[in-house]
Amino acid sequence: MTATASGIVGRGGEAAGQLFRSWFDGLTAAAEEKRGAAYVFVMGSVTELLRCFDFPIVFPEINSLQTAVRHVAHEYLNEAENYGYSPDICGYVKADVAVQLRRGAHPMGRIPKPALAVCTNACNTYIKWGEIWERMHGMPMFTLDIPGSRGAGVTSAPGSEDFERERAYVAGQLGELITLCERVSGRAFDIDRLREHLGHANTMQAAWRELIDCNRSRPAVFNALSDGTIYLGVANGFRGTAEGAAFFRDLLEELCYKAANGIGTVTKEQWRLAFVGVPCYPIFRRFAELFTHWGGVFVNSTYLWFASGGSHVDFQYDLERPLESLAAGVLRTVRAAMDSMFFQAPSLAEMIDPFGIDGVVFHPIKSCRTVSTGLADTRRALMALRDIPSLFIESDLMDRRVVSEAQLKNRADAFFEGLAARRAQPALAR
Ligand code: SF4
Fold it and tell me: Is 355 in contact with 272 (CB distance < 8 Å)?
């Protein structure tokens, strides 16, 4: 498509909607044909590998958030709680349990049963969640153990002996996963198919980094909270596919066009913000409006880092050495995703100047202890590194019972008033 103002701006959102519908139509068809799916998670999905065995790919986290943005999550949560799950655990898990109890019935279609599940250690809930499917469906669950960083910046550098040991450890597990996939799918592993999927993943990963960088421009060309969540859906659901690669090539063209022509994502950009945590899906649009109403735009977020499975990392698969490179890529990206949840402060501090950030919004949520537990400490650590205003608000990603819109609005309004007062006093502003 020609990059004209009439044709290019807004086409990414439209294309994402079409891809999403086609994905869920495919899942519905798979469920009707009783084909077993590979259940995976956004941090370490290894879909590049699983696609070699023609598994339909199911991301239960994405299915669950879809129930929230479609305002029916409470029905699913109630069903799982009535079944015996505590109100206290991750809402994603409970919505999925209800989907399983409903034999796959979901607002976007029907979800096929799992033939196998791949869980990484990026979130401890992943592993307990996989055990639920094991009990319900009796299928195998594979746990991929990725060595994490030992502290902020305390990590094995690519090329070092430590890194090579860790890469070999991951490679050994991927070898076992291939054997399991061959057994479950009845298909032999084909390394040329893996090369093909890795090639598409390379295109997507490079584009992901570039699109995040596009938002250094003023005005910002996309909102990391709202548009970013849509892009994340495609980045995960279509990882390693020709459609995913084409989507991101086109999206990048759109965003570059907007940057070159000064086309922003909010009508009048006033404040450039960073978002830390997971969005509030039960009131997704209104949550974003708490900020856009004041001319606030999220130019970057830790969500774009960890929920893309670490795709912000500068890494490309070596197609001459696909298996070795897959292990290195999984190690680097999943570890980067974990770092984005546990050791974000230095990265946040580093992006303040290049992205021209005026304030940081921390949003811990009840459901997700993995992301939320350390956020108060992260805020303190960031304040020690940089003098930057921040807002700390709490709600949930699924459970509307703990979302108080009025309270969120009060806090957001006060935050913007504080930003305005700071800007009015040049000595305090950066
Ligand atoms: S606890 Fe957090 S990271 Fe883990 S599955 Fe739930 S939402 Fe995702």
Answer: yes
Average pLDDT (189-209) is 98
How many whole angstroms separate alpha carbon 398 and alpha carbon 91?
Answer: 6
Kindly report, residue by residue over 320-351, the tens digit of the pLDDT: 999 999 999 999 999 999 999 999 999 999 99
The larger pLDDT score, comparing residue 429 to residue 204, is at 204
Determine which residue's CA is closest to atom 8 belonging to ligand 1: 368
Band of residue 153 on the pLDDT scale cut at 50, 70, 90 = confident
Tokens of 101: 């109890």
Using alpha carbons, select from 368, 391, 335 the residue that is nearest to residue 65.
368
Reported as a pLDDT band with limits 50, 70 and 90, residue 7 is confident
Task: Output 418-423 pairs: Cβ under 8 A, ≥24 positions apart.
Answer: 418/389, 419/271, 419/358, 419/359, 419/389, 422/389, 423/358
Query: Can you tell me which atom of ligand 1 is nearest the CA of 126?
Result: 5
Q: What is d(CA 243, CA 254) in angstroms, rounded to the nearest whole number?
A: 16
Q: Round the average pLDDT of the chain to a whole number and report it.
A: 96
**DSSP E strand stretches across 27-156:** 37-39, 57-58, 105-106, 109-110, 114-120, 141-144
| pLDDT at residue 6 greater than cutoff 70 | no
Question: What is the distance in A from the centroid of ligand 1 to the CA of 397?
Answer: 10
The DSSP annotation for 245-310 comes to HHHHHHHHHHHHHHHHTT--SSSS--EEEEEEE---GGGHHHHHHHHHTTTEEEEEESHHHHTTTS
Question: What 3-state DSSP class applies to 359?
Answer: strand
Ligand 1 pocket (Cβ < 6 Å) reads 61, 90, 92, 123, 125-126, 367-368, 370-371
**Predicted pLDDT at 36:** 98
Most informative mutation of 39, 77, 118, 126 for ligand 1 (most atoms within 8 A of CB):
126
Q: What is the pLDDT of residues 103-127, one digit of tens each?
A: 999 999 999 999 999 999 999 999 9
Atom of ligand 1 nearest to the CA of 43: 3
Structure tokens at 174: 């991927």
